Amino acid sequence: MQTAAKKITNYFLQIGLIEPYQSEWFSYILESRLITLFSLPILILLGCFIAPFKVVVTLNIGMLYLRPRINGFHSKTFLGCFIISIILELSSLVLIDCFTNIITWLTFVCSIFIISILGPFNNNQIHFTEEEMIIARNRMYVSLIIYCLIAIILLFTLPLLGRCLVMSLNVVAFLLVIANLGFGVQ
């Protein structure tokens, strides 16, 4: 994926669609998108062996919405990322059924607290400046508020799907903690 992203980035540089100072950032974002494009269908297919399609899709939508805004742990290789994604998804799908109302609300509040304090995570591939971090943090808070409102509505109207969104929030908080402990791409 990294090789493909670099080739596309170099092509875009040659034809003038991006400036040289944008190339590292563009390559990183493009690689992330290519990884998602490749891995998402596989994750959904594998998840459907454990849980209903709507549960798997809701969990993945939550991750797709939250991860770019909050960041967190990123494996150093595509294979590592893919394996960890599979493990986290399958574990999450199994755990969703174990969530009682108390556990759901407790983990929901704890994850919001963790993300509010630690997010967004800045690594060497993103390398936000201090000004950019302020903007990213403000965007993260807005996204988190919107996400939490949707999760709360679903918890009262479609509890299973609400728990899926809470589980996505829990996974993102976990990845944020792991990154802050120094694991993965720093």
Describe the model.
- The chain is mainly α.
- Helix content is 77%, strand content 0%.
- It has seven helices and no strands.
- It has helices at residues 2-14, 23-47, 53-70, 78-96, 101-118, 130-157, 159-180.
- Helix 2 runs antiparallel to helix 3.
- The longest helix is centred in the C-terminal third of the chain and has 28 residues, at 130-157.
- The radius of gyration is 17 Å and the shape is globular.
- 28% of the residues are buried.
Any descriptors?
single chain, 186 residues, mainly alpha, 7 helices, 0% strand, globular
Give the gist of this structure.
The chain has 186 residues and is mainly alpha-helical. Helix content is 77%, strand content 0%.
Class derived from helix and strand content: mainly alpha
Strand content: under 5%
Give the total of beta strands.
0
The biggest beta sheet is recorded as: none
Q: Would you list the SSEs in sequence order as H and E?
A: HHHHHHH
Poorly predicted spans: none
Morphology: globular
Number of helices: 7
The helical percent reads: over 70%
Distance between the termini: 19 Å
**Mean of residue pLDDT values:** 90
Rg from alpha-carbon coordinates: 17 Å
